[in-house]
Each structure stands twice: as C-alpha cells, then as structure tokens.
Amino acid sequence: MLIHGDLHSGNLMWSIDDTDGITNQIAAIIDWQTIFEGNPMYDLAKLVTLCCDGPTRREIEHIIFDFYMEKITVEWKKNNNKEEMPFTKEKIKQAYNYAFILHAFSIIGIIAFAPAFHNPYPEKPAIREAELDISFLSALHACQDADKLLQGEMKDILEKYNL
Known about the structure:
By secondary structure, the chain is mainly α. The chain contains five helices and four strands; from the N terminus they run ββββααααα. This is Aminoglycoside phosphotransferase domain-containing protein.
C-alpha cells in the first residue's frame, strides 16, 4: 500500500458542515512528499503516537485492531476476492507494534525540535509550557509502553540484535 509517511493532525483537513462548523470527517490528507510503499500500520502508529496522550492512545489500542480487521475484511469481500484474507489481527498488531516502537522513540527528537518551529502563543509562555508538559508526558508514556513491548512480547528483537 502507499503510506503517507508523515501522518499527524497537522496534515489532516476536516470537513465543514452547513453552519461552517468543523465535523469529525476528514476532508483531505495533505503533505504527501514522504510517501512510500509499506504497511498502513506505520501511518496509524505515527498518528496515534504523535496526536494522542498516553491514556487515549492506550485506550485506542484496545479497539483499533478489531475495527481495522472489520473494515479491511468488508473491503476484501467487496472486491469479490475468492482467496482467504491474507491478514490476521495478530499480524496487524505485530506490524503496528514495530511501527509504534519506532515512533515512540522518535517522538523524543520531535519534541526537542518542536519549540523552535511552533509557538502560537509567544505572548503567553504559560500556554506553551503547558503544551510542552503534555508533549513530554505523552513521550514518556510512549517510551514506557515501547519498553514494555521490548521486555515482553517483542523481547526477541532485543535478543536478535544483542541489545
């Protein structure tokens, strides 16, 4: 599949309703210069890692794989595929976990450089400090969860590379 490569809330445009209110429907995904062929779990993991706080991401991860399997199975059958579905929930979750680990550790660098590029409230430093606090906590939760994966169900990765 084609992968966006930089999927986060800043690259999503939302639909507008009849009263000019923002809806929860995506109108467009922009900024496609990092497109590549790969697994869609890369984009999904990046989106939830960068755009959700730790508790929200953890809650989403309990439902997202069933939801994804349901939707991809409908599309698979809609296209009259006679073959058995080549994806399993376990394989999708494993692909997500690999991508999540990558994004969990890269979020540290993203946060380190974010203040230099984004400061919508220069006259209100307390707001910026609060935003950074949220980002730091989100990064901490992501790194803790990546560590749990690497110490648990993905321990073979550490052993494979003698880490």
